[in-house]
Amino acid sequence: MSLLESLQKDMVAAMKAKDKAKLSTVRMLKAAVTNEQINVGHDLTSDEEVSVLSRELKQRKDSLEEFKAAGRDQAVADLEAEIAVVESYLPEQLSVDEVKAVVEETIKAVGATSKADFGKVMGVLMPKLKGKADGKLVNATVKELLQ
């Protein structure tokens, strides 16, 4: 079952359950996937679908930080619910230890020794971890290990 079919099925289920929060989030996700499909001009591959979902998740997490800083508790609660829905469609996220192991392995494979090799490591690493780990976590781990 493709992501669009899954979103459509979940949208109908949310309508029947009168779950407005989930319904609006699923509608936004479906619109984002459909727009991306129109932009590229073909059905999305699973990697492209994960990329769209990751982008949507990142937008919500960025907004969450801003709302927390502004003290907007209701908006924070709404966004946390949306984040949970988006995460349910993404592949299982790697733990901090798993990310660290992949980063260490990549650093050895690339032969990186200093912060100057940061871009080289990230260029090899991000395609491996796309959709499986948060970019901020990967970035911080690489910086830490290249110290």
UniProtKB/TrEMBL annotation:
<dbReference type="Pfam" id="PF09424">
    <property type="entry name" value="YqeY"/>
</dbReference>
<dbReference type="GO" id="GO:0016884">
    <property type="term" value="F:carbon-nitrogen ligase activity, with glutamine as amido-N-donor"/>
</dbReference>
<dbReference type="InterPro" id="IPR019004">
    <property type="entry name" value="YqeY/Aim41"/>
</dbReference>
<dbReference type="InterPro" id="IPR003789">
    <property type="entry name" value="Asn/Gln_tRNA_amidoTrase-B-like"/>
</dbReference>
<dbReference type="InterPro" id="IPR042184">
    <property type="entry name" value="YqeY/Aim41_N"/>
</dbReference>
<dbReference type="InterPro" id="IPR023168">
    <property type="entry name" value="GatB_Yqey_C_2"/>
</dbReference>
<protein>
    <submittedName>
        <fullName>GatB Yqey domain-containing protein</fullName>
    </submittedName>
</protein>
